[in-house]
Amino acid sequence: MSIFTDTYLDKGQIILELDALEIQTDEKNKLLKVIEEIAELRFIDTILEKLDAKDKELFLEQLHNGSLEIATEVLRERIENLEELLRGRAKAVEREILQDIKTIGERK
Amino acid sequence: MLDILGKNKNPSASFQSLSQQLEQKKASVVKEFEEKHKEAIRWAKKKGIKTQELAQKGARGLAAGVAASAMVMSVGAVPTHQTIQSSGGSNHQISKEIRKNSIKTSVNAREDVTKEVKNKLSGQNLYDERAVSKKLTNVLKIPVKAQLNGIRLNATYGIMGYESHLARYPGDNLSTHFHSEIEYNHFAKAHMAGGPGAWGYIAPNRQSLTNEDIEKEKYYLVAQTWLSPNWGDASVKQWFRHRKMVVVNPVNGRVIVGVLEDAGPEESTGRQFGGSPEVYEELDLFKTGPKVLMYFVDDPKDQIPLGGYGRI
């Protein structure tokens, strides 16, 4: 599990809803992996949409080949209320996923 | 599409429907991402990085940066997702009288809570503090928190060491420590620590020792308080003293409520927590292995008694 998504995404309710579907543990873990991948895409989308082209490149370069500290610094300088923003996005992802699970549950 | 169905021979219908739905969602999120962030995709292509990998590496890489610092910076924020659920009809009321101050404390615990705890934690990532604290709060019906009053420890899941008995007052030793022969025969083998815990003696002398003090030593816990991200202020050190915590053995679902009375173990031991002989025994850690979950209990009115919890 990613610490990043774990920090922002509250998977507790999602897991409870998955448990209610009476699926197997390995199935649950596979679904959680996809949910995490969706969340990761949403998080990076949230970050990138707040950066201009030059900062995007600087951020990505530092993230992948440079200093994580600089990448983080770029975000902190350029994006106001970064944590709040990510938490808001995580909440939206959580709601979306819960809705999907509930729909499946209702079809049972 | 549907690659997560993989090698599962008999996937359940719910799993099939949900995995299909989630894979479709993921594909649409990837598509949307690629359309929206063309520069990033161009950059990634030049580096030979795929879209999902870009997101994955990005999010995971950021864990060490934004998330880690956010956790430290969020000191003072109380998680909002933790709630205490009201007791259900099948609950069994246990109550306990503490002679000292004639305070009657009571708490609701579910019958056979161990089984439910074990089931809830099965397959759970035990480092996921939010999920674990939420589940424990719901099952135990007491507020279980990784962070309380803005303060947290360095770990909520780790190895618990078997500690000696603490001297509760100056001169307390193996011959004065136990209050029955059964207790002596059972627990004297654990020996006494050379002195009190990190905060000094629990009572100034034998005459002042109360039932509450006896319970505190009996169910005492040890944590690496100096590794807490909040460490540094004398008030924080004091805050940890007698701090009520819940310890859960995820293997058998056993639960105890205890208090912090000592700081340790040394980092070099590879352990994160310590527990009194009584705590260790109650959790049956010799049989299951020493890994436990340890969280704060928010109990400002001191209504949750110390000791084994939910085994009726």
Would you give an account of this structure?
The complex is a heterodimer of chains A (108) and B (312). Chain A is mainly α. Chain A has a domain at 3-50 and 83-107. Helices cover 82% and strands 0% of the residues of chain A. Chain A has helices spanning 3-8, 12-20, 25-48, 53-65, 68-78, 82-107. The longest helix of chain A is centred in the last third of the chain and has 26 residues, at 82-107. Chain B is α+β, with helices and mostly antiparallel strands and 312 residues long. Chain B folds into two domains: 3-73, no CATH class; 92-308, RlpA-like domain (Barwin-like endoglucanases, Beta Barrel). Chain B is built from eleven helices and twelve strands. A six-stranded mixed beta barrel of chain B has the order 6-10-7-9-8-11. In chain B, strand 8 (244-248) and strand 9 (255-263) form a beta hairpin. In chain B, helix 4 runs antiparallel to helix 5. Residues 1-8 and 68-108 of chain B have low confidence and may be disordered. At the A-B interface, helix 1, helix 2, helix 3, helix 4 and helix 5 of A face helix 1, helix 2, helix 3 and helix 5 of B.
Short summary of the structure?
The complex is a heterodimer of chains A (108) and B (312). With 108 residues, chain A is mainly α.
The low-pLDDT segments of chain B are: 1-8, 68-108
Helix fraction of chain A by DSSP (H/I, runs of at least 4): over 70%
Q: What's the number of extended β-strand segments of chain A?
A: 0
What is the strand content of chain B? 15-25%
Structural class designation of chain B: alpha+beta
Mean of residue pLDDT values of chain B: 79
- How many domain units of chain B? 2
Shape of chain B: elongated
CATH topology value of the largest domain in chain B = Barwin-like endoglucanases
> What series of H and E elements makes up the topology of chain A?
HHHHHH
- Structural category of chain A is mainly alpha
The stretches of 5 or more residues of chain A where confidence is low (pLDDT under 50) are none
Largest interface, C-beta within 8 A: A-B, 64 and 61 residues
Can you tell me the CATH architecture of the largest domain in chain B?
A: Beta Barrel
Q: What distance lies between the first and last C-alpha atoms of chain A, to the nearest angstrom?
A: 29 Å
Based on Cα principal axes, name the global outline of chain A: elongated
Q: Could you give me the name of the CATH homologous superfamily of the largest domain in chain B?
A: RlpA-like domain
